[in-house]
Design brief:
Number of strands: 0
Largest sheet: none
Distance between the termini: 34 Å
Number of helices: 5
Length: 129
């Protein structure tokens, strides 16, 4: 799926978006550039990624297993006391390593991490102060 994201045109910001009621600002502290980036990724790609994951569900893929794997990677990195930006970037790089993809897929990996921020596997609401 990450390979396909480089060629997917994002949704327009004013299109209807259905996602968790918690705002990105509730999960990301005063790191405004990261808040803005994650918000843009979520507005542009969240519904498309959600639909793609739904279409992939079956014997060879389980969204719940992927979400658990992302959550586990997040919690392992969280123990390193990284800033939210560092943690976000390390998760994106972890995805690239796991999928054996080069750096040309970094933005796509960041979009996937943003999806999981919105989906609550990465960054808890209590992170923001």
């Amino acid at each position: 799926m990450i390979r396909l994201l480089r060629d997917v045109k994002p949704s327009s910001p004013d299109s209807g978006i259905s996602y968790d009621a918690h705002k990105v600002e509730e999960k990301i502290n005063q790191d405004y550039p990261l808040q803005w980036s994650v918000n843009m990724y979520v507005m542009g790609y969240y519904n498309k990624i959600k639909e793609q994951f739904s279409n992939m569900e079956g014997d060879d893929f389980s969204f719940d297993e992927l979400a658990d794997e992302i959550r586990l990677a997040y919690h392992k990195l969280k123990r390193e006391k990284l800033s939210q930006t560092e943690l976000f970037n390390r998760l994106a790089n972890w995805i690239l390593e796991k999928e054996k993809l080069d750096n040309s897929y970094l933005e796509a990996a960041r979009i996937i991490v943003a999806f999981f921020v919105q989906n609550c596997e990465v960054f808890e609401v209590e992170n923001a102060k």
